[in-house]
Amino acid sequence: MPFEEISENWSARPCRLKTVDFFDSLGGKPFAFLYGDGAETRWIILGEDPILVLAEPKGPLPRFVRSGDVPPVLPDFIGHVGYECGNRLAVSLPPPAAKPFPFPDCHLAVYRNLRLYDRETETLYLAQRQGGDPAEAAPNALLDGPFRARKIWDSDTAKGYQEKVELIRQEIAKGNVYQVNLTRVERWAFRGDLRLFARRLFDANPAPFSGFIAGPDFSVVSSSPERFFRISDGRILASPIKGTAPRGDNAMADGLLKRNLLSSPKERAELAMITDLMRNDLTRVCQIPSVRVETFPRLESYANVHHLVADISGSLVPGLTLEALFSALFPGGSVTGCPKRTAMRLIRELEAHPRMVYTGALGWFSHDLAQADFSIAIRTAWTSPSDLLFGVGGGVVWDSDPAAEYQETVHKGSSIVRCLNS
Fold it and tell me: 25-29: which pairs have CB atoms within 8 A and are 24 or more residues apart?
């Protein structure tokens, strides 16, 4: 690394801002914009003009020297880690399929200009950074004009997806695996301003981990409901999602779907397997015996679906590195299966197309890993300058119904499809 230090100066002022105010300010330089909506999403984060980019989730990392009105959260690096990075972290896995277009497997950036808005105290924090690459960044890949999109292909037909579900059930019957998360991908051609699509998706499906990253030749738009992990005060929290039901047409029907989801033996078993997997993963980075299940299950409701969620936490071992953290936890168990490595091998055999950013991780961390917050990149689209892909999938277990599993992917992708067709 050609430098060891980033200096930053902070200022702060009281003001009242909304997410739309940040959307309206997005300019022509590469940026990372995190704007989740929900009870636990206190901060809006916008970084512009990268001065350092990590192409792998590992160091060494620079020191940060801070002055001024330093905020209580420190998103030094913001970006994504793609699913296929998991193949390099676990070298025994087969290589990933070829990408349909160039796209960074990992893009974790330090941005020259940073804006943090604290919704709780109505305070805007501004930072200017020095260090890294002094060269002017290339403009981002966003275009102007009305947004239009049309579907080009599906990676799987309904029949093909259901046949793969049945193949997974056969592997479960043989005792080779207990659960596998199976994904399909849709590809759309688009033109116009991707910012309009991101706004539509946020309006249609405001999610706790909404995000928008625009690089010089790629973009990511996410509306994820699922936290991968959060680090704060020496502890790590993971909140996997397993178990999905559609929303009802009225309050009575919706209430029945909620109750059925909470009482479903299949959905609870699916979540229990992933909770146990995540608890095991956390023991690799946490002090023993601090790892515990905080809640199991709880219900979260969104515009199109209800989900079952568990919370698992632990006290981190001192001196943890970024590489050790991702080697232990990545990819998330809720998007692979159980046992994780066996499920990932089967995923590679069944899925003809790479997942890229989908089911990877999107978020931020401080340089010393004292703070971090990453989502699982589901309900997520990613683009080249002219093509847009998004993935949908679900966990397959022994008593999965192939037709129902396919229909679940349709429910999960419905917000994105509506926004693309608007």
Answer: 26/142, 26/195, 26/212, 26/214, 28/139, 28/140, 28/142, 29/137, 29/139, 29/140
